[in-house]
Write a structure and sequence with these properties.
The chain is an alpha/beta fold. 46% of the residues lie in helices and 9% in strands. Bound molecules: phosphoenolpyruvate and manganese (II) ion.
Length: 357
């Protein structure tokens, strides 16, 4: 039986914002069989909207970049077979046009697009006068204004039904999460746009299956309006994000085990308190990563300086033997290469000796 907090219809949920919206499906649409198989299995476990990436923004060229427009009818028929509305990522006006033609029910703007106001504006322009829901992921960097700006650009062109998706923020250090959640950023968005539905994408936050249940529960406790979770019928063979996708069965277990708290317990102050304690946890994690990094860099610096000083001593020794009878005293001038006489530089064996030190 469907828990009362989960809703059947995406459009009713958008209208009422009652209950939780669950977006699930593969990271990428890979074949018709894969997306249908996954969708049918997922539909048994409470799903509001079926997702599947058609065009994949990959960091490096040469990786699987999505099946492209050929996959749109596959996604659509997976939706029909499973009885679910479908959504995919758009990154250009051409993608929007193809999706509208294929009857895709909702679009989503990915993190690498939200970061680019020109692209967002182009997408917004292509949606003028079109009544389709749009999910907007946060930008990859923790800048709430970019996220707000993307939503404003879409609203400015008349897009009414918008859902924010919190998928965490990129980091250059190795941490527990692939994209740390930095919960205060979605909280700021909520303060600015309290009526905007906001769901959480634990799959892209975690980057690994291991923490998805815990982050999903965090998101529910923090009053998010739903989740977006990647699920693939065979995650180990997935062409993208293999480590973070759940099987439909694992997805079902996760949803069954989620605790939906009463929203009447003062979500704002509770959210604030949880945000602050999570922030402290994250800062502590960052501090320990940074301290370890500092230690490694200072060891490397020490090794470099030791090498340099032995190089300088060798240089001074060679100069001393070359300058024989010359005026300057290399031992007193170790710091400056320029002060050695030309004669010191004459022997290529000497230079080689320096390089090999
Ligand atoms: C995705 O949802 O598969 C994806 C690429 O997401 P993001 O834009 O959050 O990286
Ligand atoms: Mn993905």
């Amino acid at each position: 039986m469907r828990p009362p907090q989960l809703v059947d219809s995406f459009s009713i949920w958008l209208e009422t914002r009652q209950g939780k919206c669950l977006v699930a499906g593969p990271c990428s649409v890979e074949s018709e069989e894969q997306v249908i198989h996954t969708a049918v299995a997922l539909a048994q476990h409470h799903v509001t909207l079926l997702r599947g990436g058609i065009w994949k923004p990959r960091t490096r060229p040469g990786a699987f970049e999505g099946v492209g427009a050929i996959g749109l009818p596959w996604l659509k028929s997976a939706g029909e077979v499973s009885g679910l509305p479908v959504t995919t990522e758009v990154a250009t006006p051409a993608h929007v046009e193809l999706c509208l033609k294929a009857g895709i029910d909702a679009l989503w703007v990915g993190a690498r697009t939200t970061v680019n106001p020109i692209m967002v504006q182009e997408i917004a322009n292509s949606l003028a006068g079109v009544d389709i829901p749009v999910l907007v992921k946060n930008p990859i960097n923790p800048d709430v204004d970019l996220w707000l700006g993307a939503i404003e650009r879409l609203r400015g062109k008349g897009v009414q039904r918008i859902v924010a998706v919190h998928r965490g923020f990129s980091t250059h250090t190795r941490r527990k999460y692939r994209n740390p959640p930095l919960w205060d950023i979605p909280s700021k968005l909520r303060q600015q746009m309290p009526d905007l539905p906001m769901i959480c994408d634990p799959s892209h936050i975690c980057g690994t299956r291991r923490f998805i249940a815990a982050v999903s529960q965090d998101a529910m406790d923090l009053g998010f309006d739903g989740l977006m979770i990647e699920s693939h019928w065979s995650p180990e063979t997935a062409l993208t994000d293999a480590k973070q996708q759940l099987t439909p069965v694992q997805y079902g277990r996760l949803i069954r085990e989620l605790i939906f708290r009463q929203e009447t317990q003062g979500p704002t102050s509770e959210m604030e308190l949880r945000n602050l304690s999570r922030e402290i946890e994250e800062i502590e994690g960052e501090l320990s990563v940074l301290l370890t990094k500092r230690q490694q860099v200072s060891r490397a610096l020490e090794r470099y300086l030791n090498r340099q000083s032995s190089l300088t001593r060798t240089w001074a020794r060679i100069c001393a033997s070359r300058c024989n009878g010359n005026e300057h005293k290399p031992e007193e001038e170790e710091e400056s290469d320029e002060q050695h006489c030309e004669a010191c530089l004459s022997s290529s064996e000497d230079r080689q000796q320096m390089i090999e030190m």
